[in-house]
Automatic annotation (TrEMBL), chains A, B:
PROSITE patterns: HTH_LACI_2. This is LacI family DNA-binding transcriptional regulator. Pfam families: LacI, Peripla_BP_1. Residues 1-41 form the HTH lacI-type domain. One of its GO terms (molecular function) is transcription cis-regulatory region binding. Keywords: DNA-binding, Transcription, Transcription regulation. InterPro entries: HTH_LacI (IPR000843), Lambda_DNA-bd_dom_sf (IPR010982), Peripla_BP/Lac1_sug-bd_dom (IPR001761), Peripla_BP_I (IPR028082).
Amino acid sequence: MTVSRAINTPQVVRPKTVEKVMAAVRATGYIPNALAGGLASKRSKLIAVVVPQINNSMFVDTIQSISDELARRGYHMLLCVAGYTHESEAEIVTTILSRRPDGIVLTGIHHSPELRKTVLNASIPVVEIWDLTPTPLDMLVGFSHAKVGYAIGQYLLNKGYRRFGLIWTEDRRAAQRKNGVCELLAQHGVDTPTEVLVPLPASLKLGREACASLLESDAVPDVLVCSSDTLAQGAIVEAMHRGMRVPEDIAVMGFGDLDFAAFHEPAITTVGIDRWGVGKRATDMLLEKLAGGFVSDPIVDVGFVLIERHSA
Amino acid sequence: MTVSRAINTPQVVRPKTVEKVMAAVRATGYIPNALAGGLASKRSKLIAVVVPQINNSMFVDTIQSISDELARRGYHMLLCVAGYTHESEAEIVTTILSRRPDGIVLTGIHHSPELRKTVLNASIPVVEIWDLTPTPLDMLVGFSHAKVGYAIGQYLLNKGYRRFGLIWTEDRRAAQRKNGVCELLAQHGVDTPTEVLVPLPASLKLGREACASLLESDAVPDVLVCSSDTLAQGAIVEAMHRGMRVPEDIAVMGFGDLDFAAFHEPAITTVGIDRWGVGKRATDMLLEKLAGGFVSDPIVDVGFVLIERHSA
DNA sequence: TTGTAGGCGTTATCAA
DNA sequence: TTGATAACGCCTACAA
């Protein structure tokens, strides 16, 4: 017990004793067994993070910020890549719960009933990220994808664009943004956009191909709205390759404000999200709750910023 | 014990008993406690993966493939972002070892003496990835960065380029590639390249800025060799923005064969690495060894491919 | 400030 | 095929 205290709460142990313990630790290369510690204390100091993909520039920054923040506070991250299907998410979460994480971060707010039940049954703090709802499982850090869609639609209408083309991936959150755009256009009596759906993960290649197919269609759009900056970049490359000027001949709008967006030629008009902030706040809320503290506002809307640059 | 067997080795339990156990599991929502299991069995089914960064397109694919492969086999991944310094790596590995992972994947082959000692002392299988050495800690999956450098230098010399400009990040493995390029140029009596060092992480912005500074220098290069495709893309954007043609006025070479490289305009000449393969093989070797199997070749050179496209 | 006893939820081992 | 017992290494609770 004295060794345990010397390592975990040295302030309650006589300094000389601490020194003796630490000397022994160094001499033997002793490393505490966190499995045993977690079993005994019922605190594993593990946080599970479930994302649909990691080779997705949006999530990676959030993951990195969670990981950094956790490490600073003596926690570790169990990272699980769940894919975009409900079934796999429920299964993965069940196996991850066997590790007895002290808390869990889930991407999105749409979960299968089994998953909801399983997670709630675990009685640990949960933070859902990257979406917004008044009824989260527990806590939430995100933003409204529908509002992003409205904002994009409004901005482009104000700019005078009327023939919309959409290049979009098929995941649920992207769909909400698309609905936002379409609803706004409908409200203003603008023609329903032409639409090209692309599979995940998005890539420059898919953006080019989708752009090509829209440019070769009967009704060529005057603006291409893309579900990510990566697709937007592809669309721009394709349009320019065909001798079109962006935005004069065709405008392109992205989403995400990825690193390259500001420095591309033309710079990409897009929507910025505080990706690190999402991770930081999610971690803060989780650890605050674990520390027994009171989380004053369990629902955090980090909002978004429409960033006007040159492509639209 | 019967429950434990019904769950882990149902084949040694009477089918009817298994059924009864499973019914109870379902009814109660029982989820085994892997902390207790790991403590008792001395197998945590956890693999630690230490990388310098995750918001780095090179590592992300490897991480994803490790994660996928581990999940398929009932293991989980503890992902640790160590940064690029020795001190932080040693510290992080020590704390991660307290989780008693069954194996560990380390990025790179240059570790501090403390780290080597700590890891070896843990007596678990180790796989180093993304570099090559005849003397790994244990097992290794990677390729020779020096050879990549030679190949790049040789290719560009054959193409007739003589005035080299380098845009390079400061990490150790990138430095090996740079040394390869420089050595080869020196052997052929070509002028020492002009060099712009950029901080990590690489970005399109940094590529543009570095390119700008090289183009404004006294000795304008006829080829820009970049330590990553991201920097190469930036260099191309900047050069074209200044009205230069790529590769006619200035050629640009990248590294990594990231998704966008093939579909950029001009398509980026680069060096491809099987990033998924590295993760897959590392995981296979680790689990093979954990299963008590014999790893016939503990050093795997995955090689690389110089991909000629249009930018150089 | 340090020490003792007991238990956390599994699995290894041996017995039935 | 199932069960009983004793760890695994730590922490909680309480005692000294």
